[in-house]
Amino acid sequence: MPTGSPNAGYRTFNTGDVLTAAQVQYYLQNQSIMYFATAAARDTALTAGILQEGMFAYLADSNTIVFYDGSSWKNLFSSQTLTSPKETNVVSATAANGTVNVDVSTSSVLIYTTNASGNWTLNVRGNNTTTLNSIMSTGEQISVVFESPNGATAYYPTAFTIDGSAPTYIKWLGGTAPSSGNTNSNDVYIYTIRKTGAGAFTVLASQNKYA
Questions:
Q1: Which of 29, 154, 156, 186 has the fewest CB atoms within 10 Å, i.e. the most exposed one?
Q2: Average pLDDT, whole number, for the chain?
Q3: What is the percent of the chain where pLDDT is above 70?
């Protein structure tokens, strides 16, 4: 393979060798795992003229390793960001109201322990700087669980979004989206999210009453 090829592979260096700029770039820089604080910082540094298929990067905010496949960045290990099949959960003494974010880079199970104080929109994302779209590949699936207790007023989710936008399709168990929650109970909402294309998702959803 020619010296300085973008796909340089492996080279044995000998004592006294003087490296060319191309050798440093392709054997060392391009074939290392680069460190970036966020995906946005990565994309700012690695523009179209610099990107090479096979590059790797570590993203500190989501603790993920990604690689460039020649057209887009992909997760090396989806288990780093999607917590199935053995899932952790986040428990918070928070009352559901407004926008409730489920950050799957932390956990795909979110449990609120204070009675809801209003209707809410459930939004699923990677985290506050990373989209779910960027950490899932087409054909992948993740399930998200949100548990919220109700008191005397039956609050419920009036909308569901992914990265702040409505999914392509959302289908509810039984064929109808809930129009209310359940009083004096814990309502558990389960969303199975399938990525069907770039920014395209099909969601299967259910509401479950526990009392």
A1: 29
A2: 88
A3: 89
pLDDT for 164 equals 96
Q: What stretch of H or E contains 169?
A: strand 169-172
Q: How far apart are CA 118 and CA 116, in angstroms?
A: 6
90-210 belongs to which CATH class? mainly beta
Q: How many helices (H) and strands (E) does the chain have?
A: 3, 13
Domain range annotation of the chain? 32-76, 90-210
Identify the burial level of 3 via C-beta atoms within 10 angstroms of its C-beta, where 0-12 means exposed, 13-18 middle and 19 or more buried: exposed
Res 4: pLDDT: 45
What predicted TM-score, i.e. pTM, was given to this entire model?
0.63
For residue 118, what are the CA distances in angstroms to 41, 147, 152, 190? 37, 14, 12, 19
- Ramachandran region, residue 27 (left: φ > 0; alpha: ψ -120 to 50; beta: rest): alpha
Q: In the predicted model, is pLDDT for residue 80 greater than 70? A: no
Phi-psi region of 98 (alpha: psi -120 to 50; beta: other; left: phi over 0): left
Contact 166, 191 (CB under 8 A): no
Buried b (16+ CB within 10 A) or exposed e, 139-168: eeebbbbbbbbbeeebbbbeebbbbeeebe
As a whole-number percent, the residues of the chain with pLDDT over 90 amount to 58
